[in-house]
Design brief:
CATH architecture of the largest domain in chain A: 3-Layer(aba) Sandwich
Membrane topology (chain A): Peripheral membrane protein
CATH class of the largest domain in chain A: Alpha Beta
CATH topology of the largest domain in chain A: Rossmann fold
Largest interface: A-B, 29 and 22 residues
Helix content of chain A: 25-40%
Largest sheet of chain A: 6 strands, mixed
Order of helices and strands of chain B: HHEHEHHEHEHHHHH
GO molecular function (chain A): ATP binding; ATP hydrolysis activity; transmembrane transporter activity
Family (chain A): Belongs to the ABC transporter superfamily.
Strand content of chain B: 5-15%
Strand order of the largest sheet of chain A: 6-7-8-3-9-10
Keywords (chain A): ATP-binding, Cell cycle, Cell division, Cell membrane, Membrane, Nucleotide-binding, Transport
Radius of gyration of chain B: 32 Å
Shape of chain A: globular
Structural class of chain B: alpha+beta
Order of helices and strands of chain A: EEEHEEHEHHHEHEHEE
Structural class of chain A: alpha/beta
Strand order of the largest sheet of chain B: 2-3-1-4
Radius of gyration of chain A: 17 Å
Distance between the termini of chain B: 28 Å
Strand content of chain A: 25-35%
Domain ABC transporter (chain A): 2-225
Number of strands of chain A: 10
Oligomer: heterodimer
Largest sheet of chain B: 4 strands, antiparallel
CATH superfamily of the largest domain in chain A: P-loop containing nucleotide triphosphate hydrolases
Number of helices of chain B: 11
Number of strands of chain B: 4
Number of domains of chain A: 2
Number of domains of chain B: 2
Number of helices of chain A: 7
Helix content of chain B: over 70%
Shape of chain B: elongated
Chain lengths: 226, 312
C-alpha cells in the first residue's frame, strides 16, 4: 500500500534528515514509528503527505509515486489520507462542526451527507456536546479528538498521526490511543509516530525504530527499545 | 451536475468568507480602518480634481472683451457695430451697456463713496462711454476678435472713430498668468494625489498581507486536508471584498458631513464651487469609484497575499 524505497532527504551535507529509508506498510496495519527527537519521524510523514520532496528514492501510495503527481492529483491523494498532528492544527475561526465539515467540503461532498456524517463522527469521538464550540473553548484532549474526527470523516485509506499524544496528559493519551486502535480495528491503516514508551508498549503492534534518519529496527509485535 | 457543484462551492466559499470577516473581529476592523484612509485619499483626489477643473473653467468664463466707445458715439452706430460683431462666427454673445446705464452702474458701485459721487456731480456731464461686452465661444478666440476690432477701421456714420479702447490686451497678461498658475496647480495636484493614492494603496496591501500572514497556518492545514488552491483562496478573497465594501460605504458616509462642513468654505474660496453640492450631484459616480476601488484593492491584495502561502 505504502512503499518507502531508499528515501533520503538531505538539507545540506551536514544535515541529513533521512538516510536510505526503506519499508512497506500493508493495508490494515497499525505501524508505530519511534525514535528520539530529530530521528526523522516527522520528515517521513511529510514525504507521505507530499509536504516535502525526497532528495533520493521514491514514496509510493497504491503504486503511484506521490512526488510525480500534479498539485490537483496530490489533493486527491490527501483526501485519502487523514492526518493528525501534535499541535492539533484546527481552524481557529471555525466551530468544531465547521472544522470537520471543511474536510468534507474540500472533498466535494454534498450538504446532506455533511449534515448527517459530522454529528455522527463527533459522537464516535465522544464530542457530540461540543459541536458548536470553537477550538479555543476546548481542552487539549478534546481538540485532538476533533482532529481525529476530521481525519476519519472522509473514510480515508490511512490515518497518519504525528505525535498525537505529545501535548496530552496520561488519561487523554490513553483515550486517543484507544480511538486510533478502534479506527484500525474497523479496517483503516494507521501510522503513528511517538516517543512515548508507554503508548508503544500498550499497543503491541509493529514498531519501526529510527535513529539519525535511518531505520534501525522493524519488529512485527515490538516494544519501545532504544 | 457540474454547474450544481460549482454553485455549491461558490455558496460555501461566500459563507466561509463572510464568517471569516465577521469572526476575525479586530483584524477585520483594522483592515477596514486602513482601507477607509486609502479610500478617503482616493475620494479626496476626486474632489481636488473637480475643484481644479471647475475653477479653471470658471476662470475661462470670466475672460471677455470690453469695447469702450467714445462718449460722442451715437446709439445707432453702436448698435450697427454690435450687429457686425455678432455676425462673427467666433462670437457667442455681445451685451450693450448704454452711457446712461454705465453711469447708473457707476453710481451704484460708489454709493458709499461720497467723494467720488461729489466729483461726478461737479463734472455736470456723463463722462462714461457706452460699452460692448463680448464673449467668445472658445477662450482661444478672444485674441482673433480683439485683433479684428483693432485692425478694422470702425467709424461712425459721420466718419469718426467710435472705439475708444479694447481692454483685452491689458487683461491678457494677468489672464495668461492665472491660467498658467491654475495649470501648474492642476498638474501638481494630480501628481500629489497620485502619489498619496499609491502610498495608501501600498499601506492597505501590506495590512491585508499581514492579516493573511496570521492565517498562514490555516492555509497549510486547509491544503493538508485536500482542499484545492481556489477553495482555500476563495474565502480570503471574499473577506477582502467585504473589507472593501464596508470601507467604501463608511468612507461615503464620512464624506457627507465633511463635505457639508466644507461646502460654504469651498464656495467662497473657489469661485462658486460647493463641494457638498458636487458630492450630492455626483453621488453615484463617486460611490462607484470609491466602493469599486475598495473592492478591487481588497480582492487583489487578498488574492496575491494568499498565493504566497499556497504550496503545490
Amino acid at each position: 500500500m505504502i512503499i518507502f524505497d531508499n528515501v533520503s532527504k538531505k538539507y545540506n551535507e551536514d544535515c541529513i534528515a533521512l538516510d536510505k529509508v526503506s519499508f512497506v506498510v500493508n493495508p490494515n496495519e497499525f505501524v508505530s514509528i519511534v525514535g528520539p527527537s530529530g530521528a526523522g519521524k516527522t520528515t517521513l510523514l511529510k514525504m507521505l503527505l507530499a509536504e516535502d520532496k525526497p532528495t533520493e528514492g521514491k514514496v509510493s501510495f497504491f503504486d503511484t509515486d506521490i512526488h510525480t503527481l500534479s498539485g490537483e492529483e496530490i489533493n486527491l491523494v490527501r483526501r485519502k489520507i487523514g492526518a493528525v498532528f501534535q499541535d492539533f492544527r484546527l481552524l481557529p475561526n471555525k466551530t468544531v462542526y465547521e472544522n470537520i465539515a471543511f474536510a468534507m467540503e474540500a472533498a466535494g461532498r454534498p450538504d446532506e451527507e455533511i449534515e448527517s456524517d459530522v454529528p455522527h463522527v463527533l459522537e464516535l469521538v465522544d464530542l457530540g456536546n461540543k459541536i458548536w464550540n470553537f477550538p479555543s473553548e476546548l481542552s487539549g484532549g478534546e481538540k485532538q479528538r476533533v482532529a481525529i474526527a476530521r481525519a476519519i470523516v472522509n473514510q480515508p485509506d490511512i490515518i497518519i498521526a504525528d505525535e498525537p499524544t505529545g501535548n496530552l496528559d496520561p488519561a487523554n493519551t490513553y483515550d486517543i490511543v484507544q480511538i486510533l486502535k478502534k479506527i484500525n480495528d474497523l479496517g483503516t491503516t494507521v501510522i503513528l509516530t511517538t516517543h512515548n514508551k508507554g503508548v508503544i508498549d500498550s499497543i503491541g503492534r509493529r514498531v519501526i525504530t529510527m535513529q539519525d534518519g535511518r531505520v534501525i529496527r522493524d519488529d512485527i509485535a515490538g516494544k519501545y527499545i532504544l | 451536475m457540474e454547474q450544481q457543484l460549482f454553485k455549491t462551492k461558490l455558496r460555501r466559499v461566500a459563507k466561509a468568507g463572510f464568517f471569516n470577516f465577521w469572526r476575525s473581529g479586530y483584524v477585520s476592523l483594522a483592515s477596514v480602518l486602513v482601507m477607509v484612509v486609502t479610500l478617503s485619499v482616493i475620494g479626496s483626489a476626486i474632489f481636488v480634481s473637480a475643484i481644479l477643473n471647475i475653477t479653471m473653467e470658471e476662470l475661462r468664463n470670466k475672460v471677455d472683451i470690453n469695447v469702450y466707445l467714445v462718449t460722442t458715439s451715437v446709439e445707432n452706430d453702436i448698435l450697427a457695430l454690435k450687429t457686425k460683431i455678432e455676425s462673427l462666427p467666433e462670437v457667442l454673445s455681445v451685451e450693450y451697456t448704454s452711457r446712461e446705464k454705465a453711469l447708473e452702474n457707476f453710481r451704484l458701485r460708489h454709493e458709499n463713496d461720497q467723494i467720488t459721487i461729489q466729483a461726478l456731480e461737479e463734472l455736470g456731464d456723463n463722462p462714461l462711454g457706452a460699452t460692448l461686452n463680448i464673449k467668445a465661444k472658445e477662450p482661444s478666440q478672444y485674441e482673433g476678435i480683439a485683433n479684428f476690432l483693432n485692425e478694422e477701421n470702425i467709424l461712425s456714420s459721420e466718419g469718426e472713430k467710435i472705439i475708444d479702447k479694447i481692454n483685452y490686451f491689458e487683461n491678457r497678461v494677468a489672464i495668461d498668468k492665472l491660467s498658467r498658475i491654475i495649470n501648474s496647480a492642476e498638474r501638481l495636484g494630480l501628481v500629489l494625489s497620485l502619489a498619496l493614492v499609491l502610498v495608501s494603496i501600498m499601506i492597505t496591501l501590506n495590512t491585508i498581507r499581514l492579516t493573511i500572514f496570521i492565517s498562514r497556518e490555516e492555509i497549510s492545514v486547509m491544503q493538508l486536508v485536500g482542499a484545492s488552491k481556489n477553495y482555500v483562496r476563495g474565502p480570503f478573497v471574499v473577506t477582502g471584498v467585504l473589507v472593501g465594501l464596508f470601507s467604501g460605504f463608511i468612507t461615503m458616509i464620512l464624506f457627507l458631513p465633511i463635505s457639508y462642513w466644507l461646502g460654504g468654505t469651498t464656495e467662497n474660496f473657489f469661485i462658486g464651487f460647493n463641494i457638498f453640492s458636487y458630492y450630492l450631484s455626483n453621488f453615484f459616480q463617486i460611490l462607484f469609484i470609491v466602493v469599486g476601488s475598495g473592492v478591487a484593492i481588497g480582492a487583489v491584495s487578498s488574492f496575491l497575499a494568499v498565493r504566497k502561502y499556497l504550496k503545490l
